[in-house]
Model the fold of this input.
Amino acid sequence: MDLDGNSVPLNLSTAKSVKQKPASPIENGIRSWLGLLPTGVHALVPPEVHKAALGAPKRWVVYTPMVLLPSGSFEQLWWQELAIQIPQHIDSLWQSILAQISKREGKGKLTHLAINAGIPLNKHEDENENVLRTPSGLLMLCGNFGPALDPGLQPTERDLEEAFWVRTKQNGIVQIWAPRYTMFSRGNIKEKSRILDFHSKGKHNRSNTQVGTETAIDLYAGIGYFVFSYVKMGMKRVLGWEINPWSVEGLRRGALANGWTAKVIRPEETLSLENENVVIFVEDNLRASERLLLVEQGAALKISHVNCGLLPSSAASWETALSALSGDGWLHLHENVGVKDIAKRKEEIGEVLHGLLTRKQSRRFLTMDEVDLVKTFAPGVWHCVFDVFITDPVA
Done:
């Protein structure tokens, strides 16, 4: 209306158009599924489900050929009731969602769908620590992820061949794992990148590191998170210890996918070094000192990096890490630390390491270097990596 109260026609050319946000592939998948349900089934579908955006996950991650949804997805009561009322139609819902995400991602056909869950610190059946970091909380919605196997038992060759394996690429490095039996930490990418560039700008060359002639050690190798970064950095060789056979197989497959050679050594086997990029011992790293002593009798390893990547604390491996270094070198110690306690923890680590050196009557000395904040582990708690430089005056 004008000032006199007369109506004024709306000038559509000047009206601002409101852009509608396009529906997500998951919403489209739900709507497509609803449209294909038999007429009689619609009466059983709660009204909330017809409002496809309500309660639908907004994010996902593709690990070819799997789609992983965030924790808490589809946990609303109406979804749970629907799964009970029309179970024969639920698989087609997951297939519809996969089809829509495949179309959006353009990475080929995606065949498996799961909901993420945190890695439990303890096994479900008892209070023993989940030392293998088995992803027992993973909720598998669509696709064959492999049989339910006891993670404490050695998988057979057939188990390994028939398992479902996925892959991703970070920093140009392929990583492979079996999601039913092995965890994957996406948030470690920042630390992987830092390791790759550790010697590239000369900042950390106080030890006159000759990367192409030296060895790195990873006492908690996993599927090769940091092992592969050391290889790509240019290290002559990387030795790793890992007790989860599924992780070892993922590491072996990942090494081959990146064009590197890998040798797997089991507890009863001895090692003869050749020209492998990666050597992995399928055993507790408590044997690392013994193994290294035998190896060094026939080879000058020149170990200059030791990675201790266990959370919430890698303290149990620090003495082994110290004894592994050949002359000057770096320790990378992973810890979960409250944000207000990082400086204090750095000082405490220095005191512990100094005590270990003193007890061994070692002439080596240490410098507490950077603390890298990798990612938040919980509110107010950071996954930190404490870099420690060890100097050997007689090396």
